[in-house]
Amino acid sequence: PEGGKRCSLCFRFRLEKTAQSAKKKEIDWFSTSLTVSPYKNAMIINQIGQEIAQKHKIRFLVRDFKKQDGFKKTMELAKKYHLYHQNYCGCVFSK
Predict the structure, then answer these.
(1) By the 8 A CB rule, do 58 and 23 touch?
(2) How many CA atoms lie within 13 A of 50 on its CB side?
(3) Nearest residue to 46 (alpha-carbon basis) of 57, 58, 56, 33
(4) Which helix (H) or strand (E) covers residue 55, if one does?
(5) pLDDT of residue 64
(6) CB 40 within 8 A of CB 2
(7) At 67, is the secondary structure helix, strand, or coil?
(8) pLDDT digit string, tens, across residues 23-64
(9) E-assigned strand segments in the chain
(10) Average pLDDT, integer, range 9-27
């Protein structure tokens, strides 16, 4: 189910790959847009991001992008600028 154990494992996998890529490219910070979703737990995502950042000795930008109508704003901007806005996180189970 959405928000189950599988989600935390996926967040960890994706953020690990992002951190590795940032480190390789000598980028000091990394983050994710996953926290804009009303279906994703930003607290868990941010906690995992911080753990991975410590491991790789880089910084993770802690944010909950859905706050202050963030999700609504992303939908409006995607429509205004004709941007593709996928309605699932990328996981086949959430599709």
Answers:
(1) yes
(2) 8
(3) 33
(4) helix 42-56
(5) 95
(6) no
(7) coil
(8) 999 999 999 999 999 889 999 999 999 999 999 999 999 999
(9) 29-30, 59-60
(10) 96
At residue 7, what is the residue type?
C
- Rounded CA gap, 17 and 69, in Å? 29
The span from the CA of 62 to the CA of 77, in Å, is 22
CA 8 to centroid of chain Cα atoms: 11
Chain centre distance of CA 10: 10
Cα distance between residue 7 and residue 45, in whole Å: 9
Q: pLDDT digit string (tens) for 68-89?
A: 999 999 999 999 999 987 777 7
